[in-house]
Structures are given as structure tokens and as C-alpha cells.
Design brief:
mainly alpha
């Protein structure tokens, strides 16, 4: 399977995650909260693990000037900070719209959809770059993004309902915003085709964004839990998420080792 086909399948799966909102309609609130409680911790670990175990090492391995890698990691952090700063600035001007008497004002919903579209475009960019690096890195990145997207999409679905959308319309517009991931995927492959050296740099840029999302968006949510037992469980699940990403390195190692053996075998036959 080519990197492009694998990336398209991965982005299609991520886009379908936007339909997770329909599942929440059939779940009891207590069960949903318990599930999100653990999934958020797992997402934080997966995002950090993918950045530090997969994307960053691959970027260093492929780039001739090692100084470029930290520069692009920092660029990813700064770009996402600026994007969120801009979106939050607009959001702060619309806080009153969340009060019950303004529950049906749609600009809040438009803000949610715009923010989601930007996030999904970035996801597509990251998935495209990851699969161009290797199939294994692509799979690890897709898993990390999916774990993060599930709680985010459930939250977005709730906000859209609060903004006045019907359930079906909220699902539909949320799905449309998810399709911007394909635009991000196209950008990644266009840049990669223009200059193969950009592929590991896009991976480093994506790593920076993953680090920012985990540390700025996800982990602060975990700090809202103060009960000792639940906090300990969160830490364990977060560590499990990191360990799972580290465990995927063995699959990558086996795949690279098998590839190297095949290459050596072809060279022997050539001689």
C-alpha cells in the first residue's frame, strides 16, 4: 500500500470520528464522563509519546542539518499558540452567548466549527507527513490523533447543540469541518513532492503541535481532577499511553530490519 493510499484511509477514519457525537446520545452522562476521564489521559500520553518516540527521532534521522529540527518543533508550538490565541480572543468576546437566554445564538457554533476545521487540517498535515516518513510512524500518529479527537469531538458536539443546532445538523456540520483534514493531507503531499527534504521537517512541525496540544489543552483538563485515587489512575493511564507509543517502536524496528534484509538480499543477487 502506497503512503498516499494509507494516508487517505487514515484521514477517512479520523474524519468518521466526528460522528462520535451520535454515540453520546445513547450513553448515560455518568458513563460518558468516566469514559472521557480515562480517554483524555490516554490521549495526552499518546500525543507526547508519538512526538518524542516517533516524529522527532525520524526527523533527526532524515535531516542533514540537526538545527532545523528544533526550529520546526518550536515553529509548530508557536503557530498553534498563535492560532489558539486568535480563536480564544474571539471566543472571549462571545462568552455571554453561552448563558441560557442566548443559547440559540449561532456565532458560537461558527466559532467551534472554525476551530475544529483548523485542528482537522493540521491533523491531515501530520498524518500525511507521518506516512511519508514510514507506515509505522503513520499508524502511530493516526492512533494518537484518534485518541485526542474522540473527547474533542464529543465536546464540540455538545457545544454545537448548545449553540442552537439540531442533533442531525450538528453531526452534519461537524463532519463537514472534519473533511478539512483531506486538505491538510493534500498540502503535506504537495510539499513532500516538491522537496522530499520537507517531509521530516513537517514531521518535526507536527511534533511541536502535538506537544503544545498535550501540554496546553489536554493536561490542564487532567488537573481539574483532584481526588487522589482518580488522579493516580489518570497518571497510570497517561503513562500507559506513552508506553504504548514506545511499544510501537518494536514494530517499526522489526519492519525496518525486514526491509534492510530484503535490500541486502537484492544487492547480493545484483552482484
Amino acid at each position: 500500500m502506497t503512503p498516499l493510499v494509507a494516508s487517505i484511509i487514515a484521514v477517512a477514519i479520523i474524519s468518521l470520528v466526528s460522528m462520535i457525537g451520535i454515540v453520546t446520545l445513547s450513553l448515560k452522562e455518568g458513563l460518558l464522563r468516566r469514559g472521557l476521564f480515562l480517554l483524555t489521559s490516554l490521549a495526552a500520553g499518546a500525543l507526547l509519546g508519538d512526538a518524542f518516540f516517533h516524529l522527532i527521532p525520524e526527523a533527526f534521522a532524515e535531516v542533514s542539518d540537526p538545527l532545523l529540527v528544533p526550529m520546526f518543533i518550536l515553529a509548530g508550538i508557536l503557530v498553534f499558540f498563535i492560532l489558539e490565541k486568535y480563536l480564544h480572543w474571539h471566543h472571549s468576546h462571545g462568552d455571554d452567548e453561552f448563558s441560557p437566554e442566548h443559547a440559540r445564538i449561532h456565532p458560537v457554533g461558527h466559532l467551534v466549527l472554525t476551530s475544529d476545521a483548523v485542528h482537522n487540517l493540521v491533523d491531515g498535515l501530520a498524518i500525511g507527513a507521518a506516512f511519508m516518513v514510514s507506515t509505522e510512524v503513520g499508524i502511530a500518529t493516526t492512533v494518537a490523533i484518534a485518541l485526542h479527537e474522540i473527547p474533542q469531538e464529543i465536546g464540540d458536539f455538545g457545544l454545537l447543540l448548545h449553540a442552537g443546532y439540531s442533533r442531525m445538523k450538528a453531526l452534519f456540520v461537524n463532519f463537514l469541518s472534519a473533511l478539512t483534514a483531506f486538505l491538510g493531507l493534500a498540502i503535506a503531499f504537495l510539499l513532500g513532492s516538491a522537496d522530499a527534504m520537507l517531509i521530516p521537517l513537517i514531521a518535526a512541525f507536527s511534533a511541536g503541535m502535538f506537544i503544545y496540544i498535550a501540554m496546553s489543552d489536554v493536561i490542564p483538563e487532567l488537573h481539574k481532577t483532584v481526588a487522589p485515587k482518580r488522579s493516580a489512575l489518570q497518571v497510570l493511564v497517561l503513562i500507559f499511553g506513552i508506553a504504548a507509543m514506545a511499544g510501537l517502536l518494536t514494530i517499526e524496528g522489526d519492519a525496518h530490519g525486514h526491509s534492510d534484509l530484503e535490500h541486502e538480499h537484492e544487492e547480493v543477487h545484483a552482484h
